Amino acid sequence: MDNRQRQRHRQELQRQQHQRRRRRRRRQQAYRARILVGLMLLAIVLIAGIGINTAAKKSAERKAQKEQELREQEQAAAEAEKKKKEKEEEARKQEEAQKEKEKPFTLADLDNPEGFDTRPTEHGIALQNTQIDINGLDTTGLDWGQGGDKDQWNRPAGCLQYQEKYGKYNAYFIKDEPEKKVIYLTIDEGYEYGCSPRILDTLKEKKVPAVFFVTKSFADQNNDLVQRMIDEGHEVGNHSVTHPAGGLYSQTVEEQTNEVTGLHDYIKNQFGYEMHLFRYPAGKFNEQSLALLNNLNYKTVFWSFAYLDYDVENQPDPAESLQKMIDCLHPGALYLLHAESETNTQVLGDFIDQARAQGYEFKLFQ
What value does the mean pLDDT of the chain take? Predict the structure, then answer.
């Protein structure tokens, strides 16, 4: 083989080798392309999966957030409805309390199981007593005090003795009813010391009636308080025009009559109210004077309990006074309290509560 043939043979071999290398490169390129495409597809799948998962999470979070917002809205609505109902209930209670406050206060509201609301309280009571000849009756002055001796019902013995002796003159030292746990509250009004409105407030709150014995100067200077006593179902009693220090019996029969009728006429003219209960100033009386009061169509009311409560400059201890009032509880009691007493004003409500707790009821003395 000559050189030219050998050269062509080498060229052919080189060409064949070059073709083989090109085919290998193309196969490698195709393989790498397939791998790249596979990787790209895998990446796309992964990215899509991540996107779908993220979207699902976000969707779940949005759903949970909406549900939470809905629950919060429902809870807020429930709270608002609850507050609305509470406000409506509070408004209803306030309206009822206002109506109760504005409701006229009569004896029908008081602690009177037997009831006194049918009588014309706003006009009082006019008595027609059997007249007694006062000539020859004892004029010896007496100073009333209930004494310390007690019977088995804790009643002052002196009250029972005087009731038996002077009851025929329409005089009352106690109501002789040992089987009835009843208290009759009476309050003396010689002058106003700023306590009467609070005492009336307490009696209204506790629904307890009382007899207020007033003088002419008190009634004249405190028309509004007297009218309130009448309007709220209490009795207004006669305590004389001038509250004579020496006792009513120290005056002539004519002067005594003027002391009683002068205040009686004033109250009747001023308030249209007829009084029928009398209390002797300082508890000083005699038999003839009792008969005179009977003839003036009055009942005379003394007391079965009283204590030193009227000295405004030396008021007793409230706790000790309350205990004394409770210790002296007894059936048919006529309690005398002075309205100028700050101590009485403080303890009156507690006294009523504790007396009721022991089974006592409060009635209006008539």
Answer: 88
> CA–CA distance from 232 to each of 67, 104, 332 (Å)?
62, 8, 23
Mean pLDDT on 8-35? 79
Is 330 catalytic? The answer is no
Q: For residues 150 and 164, what is the distance between their CA atoms, to the nearest angstrom?
A: 16
The backbone torsions φ and ψ at residue 50, rounded to the nearest 5 degrees and listed phi first, read: -65, -40
What pTM, to 2 d.p., does this model score?
0.69
Q: From CA 261, how far away is CA 253, in angstroms rounded?
A: 12
Q: In which region does residue 330 sit, left (phi positive, over 0), alpha (psi from -120 to 50) or beta (all else)? A: beta
Interval 169-190: pLDDT, tens: 999 999 988 899 999 999 999 9
Residue 33 is predicted with a pLDDT of 79
Contacts of 333 (CB under 8 A, 6+ apart): 155, 174, 175, 182, 183, 184, 304, 305
Does 309 participate in catalysis according to the annotation?
A: no
Max Cα distance, the chain (Å):
197
What is the crossing angle of helices 253-271 and 287-295, to 10°? 40
Give the strand pairing for 171-172 and 299-301: parallel
Per-residue pLDDT tens over the stretch 201-218 = 999 999 999 999 999 999
**Choice among 111, 188, 239, 330 that is catalytic:** 188
Annotate 199-210 with b (16+ C-beta within 10 A) or e (fewer).
Answer: bbebbbebebbb
Q: Which of 9, 264, 338, 350 is catalytic?
A: 338
- Decide: 304 and 159 in contact? Cβ < 8 Å: yes
